[in-house]
Specification:
Residues 145-154, 172-182 have a biased composition (Low complexity). Residues 120-182 are annotated as: Disordered. Keywords: Membrane, Transmembrane, Transmembrane helix. This protein is α/β, with parallel strands linked by helices. Helices cover 41% and strands 12% of the residues. It is built from 15 helices and 13 strands. It has helices at 2-33, 36-42, 44-58, 62-65, 72-82, 102-113, 175-197, 211-214, 217-224, 240-245, 282-296, 316-330, 386-403, 438-443, 445-456, and strands at residues 118-119, 126-127, 225-227, 259-262, 301-303, 336-343, 352-355, 358-361, 363-368, 371-372, 376-377, 411-414, 425-433. The strands form 4 sheets. It has a 7-stranded mixed sheet. Strands 1-2 form a two-stranded antiparallel ribbon. Strand 7 and strand 8 form a beta hairpin. Helix 1 packs parallel to helix 5 (72-82).
Length: 460
């Protein structure tokens, strides 16, 4: 009986020693892993030897007295976990805590490019974004005010919309002449609409929002944002006080460039656009926004019309990045970057709103969070300006809701980066969709330019 008690007490002491030893090893391992440069010099075998010597010093005899006991496997498992043949090397640079192969990085870039809906220009088919919430168009949902997009428009067949009262071409006039005449008519119509829309600017708030409501995360997320199911965000990032507290005003006058407008997807057109005519695509819409900002509001704007999605849309962001970086390096005074796009929706969806009597395309601000639901923060797509990006888009969204109710769709949040890491005040803006007309898209630039002026100059 006494022998049994002795063995039992001895085993309890051994068990306690083993667990204490395992804990000690874990602490040593943490210390070593937090100093990777020391670990690299020491090497795996040296690190193991170090741990064993420390263990023998603090718990003498443990390695000899318990090796025949099954509990020893616990200590061995701790050593295996901490030193399981990983190649520990000094960190090679910032934000490289998760190393990815070139292949996986390329795949991420392709997914980033595919994270917006687009329309196949040959077939007219809407290609849904990767990971869209319902597997269909991002836009086939209610906007912030609960207003649904007009679904009464005729289906787009990929050709020019037939105008009422116009007879079918009988062949007496060449098709090329018809096309040229139609193009001139469309340009003239768009010009007239621009002139009329220029007066559609709101000077008085139509709606006001109490700060206590905006500080309610649930209210904020339900009324101002649409979060894709591929990413996540919380009240720390979407905090009205923090978003509105950031000063996004321009810091200098127009003697040097202040704003850059460019197009990652320059080939996006509208229902009545002529393929190959940049003036009738989203680039033409950018031209009109540039004109309004420079001539009406006195800003200094660079409109970059480089093409990055010709032949290879999947790598448009990767191709646009170096050009964008170069422009910013050559024009260090630029404080605001606007990437102007056009969304892709179902052919029966029309993103149209009426502001001050003028029909125009709805716009949508788009933010990337460099975070996916599955993997968490994407360290190799690091963006130091996410908080700034979110602040300027929210300030634009709130100002739009106050002055132009229904003009904007909810801010869309998705997982990747979208070249928003080059400048704190970066906006990715979707102007309508392929079912809108060019005139509707250009009309939308009038309130957009006004909102930019209000936000960037600090108007209340």
């Amino acid at each position: 009986m006494y022998a049994y008690r002795y063995r039992h007490l001895k085993k309890k002491k051994i068990n306690g020693a083993v667990w204490l030893g395992g804990l000690l090893l874990a602490v040593i391992g943490i210390l070593l892993q937090t100093n990777r440069s020391f670990f690299a010099k020491l090497g795996e075998e040296g690190a193991k030897s170090c741990c064993e010597k420390v263990l023998d010093f603090y718990l003498p005899g443990l390695s000899y007295s318990v090796k025949d006991e099954t509990e020893w496997s616990f200590v061995e498992k701790v050593i295996d976990v901490l030193f399981s043949g990983e190649n520990y090397e000094p960190e090679s640079g910032s934000y490289q805590t998760q190393i990815e192969s070139d292949l996986s990085y390329e795949a991420i870039l392709a997914r980033e490019a595919a994270d917006e809906n687009y329309v196949d220009e040959k077939t007219g088919e809407v290609i849904p974004s990767v990971g869209s919430a319902d597997g269909t168009s991002l836009s086939d949902e209610k906007d912030a005010g609960g207003q649904t997009a007009d679904a009464g428009a005729a289906e787009n067949t990929g050709g020019q919309p037939a105008e009422p009262g116009v007879a079918e071409n009988t062949g007496e006039q060449p098709a090329e002449a018809d096309a040229a005449e139609n193009q001139q008519a469309q340009i003239a119509e768009a010009g007239a609409a621009e002139s009329q829309a220029a007066s559609a600017v709101a000077d008085i708030k139509a709606v006001t929002f109490a700060r206590e409501k905006l500080n309610d995360f649930d209210y904020l997320i339900q009324n101002f944002y649409q979060v894709d199911n591929t990413t996540t965000i919380g009240s720390t990032q979407l905090n009205a006080d923090a978003l509105l507290g950031k000063d996004v005003r321009l810091s200098h006058d127009a003697s040097t460039p202040q704003i850059l407008i460019y197009h990652t997807h320059s080939q996006e057109g509208y229902a009545d656009s002529v393929p190959g005519d940049a003036s009738m695509s989203v680039v033409g819409v950018g031209d009109y926004l540039t004109e309004l900002l420079t001539q009406k509001y006195g800003f200094s704007v660079i409109h970059h019309t480089g093409q990055y999605d010709v032949g290879d849309r999947d790598h448009a962001y990767a191709k646009a990045g170096p050009a964008l970086e170069q422009i910013l390096a050559e024009n260090k005074s630029i404080e605001v970057v606007i990437d102007l796009h056009r969304d892709g929706v179902g052919n029966n969806t029309r993103l149209v709103t009426e502001q001050n009597g003028m029909p125009m395309a709805q716009i949508m601000f788009f933010n990337g969070l460099s975070r996916t639901t599955k993997t968490g923060d994407i360290e190799y797509l690091y963006n130091p300006y996410i908080a700034d990006n979110l602040a300027i888009s929210f300030q634009m969204q709130l100002k739009a809701a106050e002055y132009y109710p229904g003009f904007t769709r909810r801010i869309y949040l998705k997982g990747y980066r979208y070249n928003m890491h080059y400048c704190p005040k970066t906006l990715l803006i979707e102007v309508g969709a392929q079912t809108n007309t060019l005139a509707e898209a250009k009309n939308a630039m009038v309130p957009l330019a006004d909102l930019l002026n209000k936000v960037l100059t600090g108007q209340q």
